[in-house]
Amino acid sequence: GESNIAIHHTSLGNEPVYKIISETRSNRFVDFIYKIRDKVIMIVNPENYSLLHVTKKINQGDYIKRYSSIIDYKESKIFYKGDEIPIEGNVYDPLGIILNLRLQKLTLNNSFSFVSYNKKKLQNVIITVKGKEKIQVPKGEYICWILEPEFEYLDDEDETMKIWISDDAESIPIKIEKYGKYGTMVLSLSEYSIYE
Questions:
Q1: Were both Cys, which of 49, 128, 131, 133 would link to 96 (CB 3.0–4.6 Å)?
Q2: How many CB atoms lie under 10 A from the CB of residue 105?
Q3: What's the rounded Cα separation, in Å, for the pair 5 and 20?
Q4: Which of 10, 82, 74 is nearest to 42 (CA)?
């Protein structure tokens, strides 16, 4: 299959923001077994990738879900399908957490704390740098930091993961392994471009 992530500079209420579009689809062979067609559109703070607005269209096998949420930090609330979810401080989509890690100084055993958001659920996540290794992906060979999350709790809809981020000035996410209810998805970097 294939996953594409694009980050665009835009504005929201005259404030600069990033618009992140992530699309994942399985290939034709996998479609016969477990079809994946996911699309996520996020508006995030450009300074730390904390979430401002998210729309998700998830199609994984028989599981289909559509929802949108607005995060209002002035009101300290998330607005989701008529519900108001109280928050304290920044909240992140899992992809936003990965992008935030690009801004951090990664060293062995360093840990970073986040609050992850999905639909009605908030949970604390601690990401720890577990080690370093050289890996090969379609884009090439990289020396990477290995990071693993520790979740406050997990249920059937949750996915845990392992993340490889390049140990260089760009700190690119090189590989992501996602472990979910129906198996493992491996995302390996094949292309990386910067457009001004």
A1: 49
A2: 7
A3: 7
A4: 10
Q: What is the pLDDT of residues 167-194, one digit of tens each?
A: 999 999 999 988 766 667 788 888 877 6
Order across the sheet with 51-60: list the strands: 2-12, 15-25, 37-44, 51-60, 63-72, 77-80, 83-86
pLDDT digit string, tens, across residues 14-73: 899 999 998 877 766 655 666 777 888 999 999 999 999 999 887 766 666 788 999 999
Residue entry with tokens 């300290």: 76
CA distance linking residue 99 with residue 20, whole number of Å: 11
Burial of 1 (0-12, 13-18, 19+ CB in 10 A): middle
Question: Residue holding tokens 């390996």?
Answer: 188
How many Cβ atoms from other residues are within 10 Å of residue 26's Cβ? 20
β-bridge mates for residue 4, sequence order: 23
